[in-house]
Design goal:
- This protein is α/β, with parallel strands linked by helices.
- The protein is 37% helix and 16% strand.
- It has one domain: Zn peptidases (Aminopeptidase, 3-Layer(aba) Sandwich), CATH 3.40.630.
- The longest helix has 25 residues, at 27-51.
- The protein is globular, with a radius of gyration of 22 Å.
- The model is unreliable at 6-37 (pLDDT under 50).
- Bound molecules: zinc ion (ZN).
- Zinc ion (ZN) is lined by residues 121, 136-137, 169, 199-200, 267.
């Protein structure tokens, strides 16, 4: 027998120990790894079930039976993952219409702990124009479900995580507004540490993370407005760690009316910033386009198919008066999975998967990015 160096024997022994240990990892650890590799497909499957009129629900306008059906679908999924789920019913009476809707709320942890809310509205709009609400906001809900599924066996130590599917956003942020007023009346607003709004998170040219505008939103009634960017910055760092510099969330530069990294009041985050809660808003769009009203993030893409005529050099319409489409996906006939996949092959699924990864990173260990004070 040849001489075997003692170091080699030691190496062999260590490798054996490692092999045995890795085979007997606790179940949740192996499960977590599996989840991380299947998420993009999981979220995309939920998206199809939500927005495809042939394979799923399709349009889901506020107050309709399709909106109600979507609420039941979301509830059933949260329950399947093992969450405590509650339903908050409300009536709304807006300038546009009168009706009934509901918020679906899911959590696992201790609600008296500092709570981070991930919210996404599940109603859609502009069905008459042909919109199925794939970008707005099937994508946000699909990602939220995939995230909830992946986190169902992980309760962070110092935080509680709450998922909320808001109803009737498209007719004046009805669901989120009702939810915040209810928290306020029941003195439960104090332990909400932050709110992350997922609305239109896939489909546009870039995926942004914003904080609330530095100037209080006009819609706010109380004087408690909060625009501090802690949760936005936490998401940005998590996105760098998980997606790298090339795919991280984008903070838009300073534009007239929109200082660096801030956003308007056009979605559910506004209900929370008005109540004094720090927010982050994730949306896919393109702030670098000089749109109908300037650089306001309302044009989602430079892709020529979405313009009557796009002037690439000046990043605006060739003729502002003649322009009809303005690079819009939201609330248009282009907001269907079929059309989006045609125009941007692979984009929606990729952006969806990236968002899921970033949120799993942040919400499985929020202390790492947002230490409890
Ligand atoms: Zn929306």
């Amino acid at each position: 027998m040849k001489f075997v160096h003692p170091l080699a024997l030691a190496c062999l022994f260590t490798s054996l120990v490692l092999l045995i240990t890795s085979c007997s990892l606790p179940l949740h650890q192996t499960k977590q790894n599996t989840n991380k590799s299947i998420e993009p497909t999981v979220a995309y499957t939920y998206l199809k079930q939500l927005v495809s009129p042939t394979e799923g629900i399709g349009a889901r306008e506020a107050g309709t039976k399709e909106e109600k059906k979507t609420a039941s679908y979301i509830r059933a999924n949260f329950e399947k993952f093992g969450y405590r789920v509650s339903e908050q019913n409300f009536s709304f009476n807006s300038r546009k219409m009168v009706g009934e809707s509901q918020n679906i709320i899911a959590e696992l942890g201790d609600p008296t702990k500092p709570t981070i809310i991930l919210g996404a509205h599940y109603d859609s709009t502009a069905m008459k124009s042909g919109s199925m609400g794939a970008t707005d906001n099937g994508a946000g809900v699909a990602a939220m479900l995939a995230i909830a599924e992946a986190l169902a066996d992980k309760i962070p130590e110092n935080y509680n995580i709450r998922f909320i599917a808001f109803g009737a956003e498209e007719i004046g942020l009805q669901g989120s507004n009702y939810y915040v007023v209810d928290l306020l009346e029941n003195k439960k607003l104090g332990n909400i540490a932050a709110m992350i709004n997922f609305d239109t998170i896939a489909g546009g040219d870039k995926v942004y993370v914003h904080s609330a505008h530095s100037t209080p939103y006009k819609r706010c009634k109380s004087g408690k407005y909060n625009s501090e960017p802690s949760i936005r910055n936490a998401l940005l760092t998590a996105s760098i760690n998980i997606l790298g510099e090339n795919n991280k969330y984008v903070i838009h530069p300073d534009y007239e009316g929109y200082p660096e990294g801030v956003t308007g009041s056009w979605s559910d985050h506004a209900s929370f910033s008005c109540a004094g809660i720090p927010i982050a808003y994730v949306e896919s769009t393109n702030f670098a386009i000089n749109g109908k009203h300037g650089f306001d993030g309302y044009s989602q893409s430079t892709t020529e198919q979405l313009w009557t005529c796009f002037d690439q050099e000046n990043s605006t319409a060739c003729d502002k008066k003649a322009e009809k489409n303005w690079g819009n996906i939201w609330h248009t006939k282009y907001d269907t999975l079929e059309k989006l996949n045609n125009i941007f092959p692979g984009r929606v699924e990729k952006q969806l998967g990236n968002n899921v990864k970033v949120l799993i990173e942040l919400l499985s260990d929020p202390d790492k990015y947002l230490p409890v004070k």
